[in-house]
């Protein structure tokens, strides 16, 4: 049996969600907008442009397109500064063994990320060669919870959506997988990700029996 295993990037493969948060927080602070960890959950899985709009809405701030563009550039420069020294040590615990297991079992693997910085991150962490397909923020027009990113990934792998498994740490991403008729696996807090079919606190909690069972189904 062959299934498609589709991984989100930020917060699933690498712990970059914290860097996105820090970079947005800096902008929010400059604009005098309160921006908590809970607010940040709304931004996970969401595109850069939409994230800024959400922050501005939180602070009820109206801004010109010029200002917005400046903040978007500033946010990304700040974010990228956190990634300069990134290497394989930033791969989240348990991820590498699962990727290896999937490869050994000839299961196709794809990336399904909203980020436009996905490829350099996979390169820096040495994971690029594990992915048979990469769909990222440069490829899609509709952001999660629209399933476009995952549907495109499954299509590239030549696997039907119902035979696809999506690993996601964001609410929007879990919803996208569900709407796309895929099996959603939430990585994180059960309270936050309750819409997922399965939930694990991280990849160390996923054993190979679980993966084998999914392949067999
Ligand atoms: C998602 C992150 O993976 O990518 C979001 O969860 C981020 O926090 C989005 O805003 C876009 O990323 P980037 O790297 O293109 O700004
Ligand atoms: Mg994520």
Automatic annotation (TrEMBL):
Active-site positions on this chain: 8 (nucleophile), 10 (proton donor/acceptor)
Keywords: Carbohydrate metabolism, Isomerase, Magnesium, Metal-binding, Phosphoprotein
Cofactor mode of binding and number, as noted: Binds 2 magnesium ions per subunit.
Chain residues that bind Mg(2+): 8, 10, 168-169
Cofactor: Mg(2+)
Pfam families attached to this UniProt entry: Hydrolase (PF00702)
Site residues by UniProt (Important for catalytic activity and assists the phosphoryl transfer reaction to Asp8 by balancing charge and orienting the reacting groups): 113, 144
Single GO term (MF): beta-phosphoglucomutase activity
BP-aspect Gene Ontology terms: carbohydrate metabolic process
Catalytic reactions of this protein: beta-D-glucose 1-phosphate = beta-D-glucose 6-phosphate
Similarity remark: Belongs to the HAD-like hydrolase superfamily. CbbY/CbbZ/Gph/YieH family.
Entry protein name: Beta-phosphoglucomutase
Recorded name of the encoding gene: pgmB
